UniProtKB/TrEMBL annotation:
Ribonucleoprotein keyword on record: no
Lineage of source species: Bacteria, Bacillati, Actinomycetota, Actinomycetes, Kitasatosporales
Keyword Kinase: yes
Name recorded for this polypeptide: Sugar kinase
Keywords, in A-Z order: Kinase, Transferase
Similarity field: Belongs to the ROK (NagC/XylR) family.
InterPro entries: ATPase_NBD (IPR043129), ROK (IPR000600)
Domain of life: Bacteria
One Gene Ontology molecular-function label: kinase activity
Length: 325
């Protein structure tokens, strides 16, 4: 059976799968990223896992994987197949495509993509955005990134930076929170899951308090939690309306840890966005559908796309700068 290898490399774990042409997982596994052992160990783990999956696929399905798709964090140059920079993995200029190709015998093509864009590709084609010609995918996690979907592909922009909605300044000025990108008041400093966790910890005096606990307190009617939540939702709505004004998507897909709050997030967010629009058309605002499988599914799509185009450059992946980890 024809299949591809999909690898989704995260800061703590590598999620991997053998993926069929209909996007079903034929085999799934997960390994620790082992970043505590250094960047070389992380790369070695990726290469070893890819080789194991190649051998498993050949034994189980009678043929080796036709291609490999890899989603990685940080700065990704898909033209050269290089993981340029990933602070949480300690990477600088890792020629990952070349290394994987060599480890797999030189005959297996490899596609490299940015993790959020790759997850957005999956959500757009086979997840919450299925059938949507224009969508915006925004995961709310440690930071906030984005993927702009147009006609079944992810728009990369002129320089590979399209979709960085987390670095729109929604609370500018000297009092705006400092962002890792060097700016102040960026959306991710106010409305990410990390930002809500920090604000709720400060409000409660409990350093272990997090965004999930804040959401639970909101649902229970805690006025302190509601104030923290409203502050984040208002900022998120401000940022999303900027995105909607520029892109006019038909569907807005919200994912990441904060979206796990369900209607505790979506009900006030839909209302806040509706209050802010004037001439714009209100898109469908829906939760992401694929959860933590989006990265692997997207990596599989990159691999199948690579085979379909008969080229070593992946048209749907994005050379991009991602500072939100």
């Amino acid at each position: 059976m024809k299949h591809v290898i999909a690898l989704d490399v995260g800061g703590t774990a590598i999620k991997a799968a053998l993926v069929a042409a209909d996007n079903t997982f034929l085999h799934e596994t997960r390994r620790a990223t082992a970043r505590d052992k250094g960047p070389e160990a992380v790369v070695a783990g990726i290469l070893d896992l890819a080789a194991e999956l190649r051998d498993l696929g050949a034994a189980r399905f009678g043929e080796a994987a036709s291609a490999v798709g890899v989603a990685v964090p940080g700065i990704v140059d898909t033209a050269t197949g290089t993981a340029v920079y990933a602070a949480n993995l300690g990477w600088r200029d890792v020629p990952l495509r070349e290394m994987l190709g060599a480890r797999l015998g030189g005959a297996t093509p490899v596609a490299l993509g940015h993790d959020v864009r790759t997850g957005g590709l999956a959500e757009g084609r086979i997840g919450a955005g299925r059938g949507a010609d224009r969508f915006l995918f925004v995961p709310l996690g440690t930071g906030i990134a984005g993927a702009i979907g147009i006609g079944g592909r992810i728009e990369e922009g002129a320089h590979g930076y399209a979709g960085e909605i987390g670095h729109i300044s929604v609370r500018p000025g000297p009092d705006g929170p400092e962002c890792g990108c060097g700016g102040r008041g960026c959306l991710e400093t106010v409305a990410s899951a990390s930002a809500v966790s920090r604000a709720w910890a400060a409000a409660t005096g409990d350093p272990a308090a997090d965004a999930a606990a804040c959401a639970a307190a909101v649902a229970a009617g805690d006025p302190r939690a509601r104030a923290v939540w409203r502050h984040a939702v208002d900022a998120l709505a401000d940022g999303l309306v900027m995105g909607l004004t520029l892109l006019d998507p038909g569907t807005l897909i919200i994912g990441g840890g904060l979206a796990e709050a369900g209607e505790t997030l979506f009900a006030p967010l839909r209302a806040a966005v509706a209050e802010r629009i004037t001439f714009q058309k209100l898109p469908l605002i829906v939760p992401a559908a694929l959860g933590d499988t989006a990265g692997c599914l997207g990596a599989g799509l990159l691999a199948w796309d690579l085979l379909a185009t008969h080229t070593t450059r992946v048209p749907h992946a994005t050379p991009t700068t991602e500072v939100s980890a």
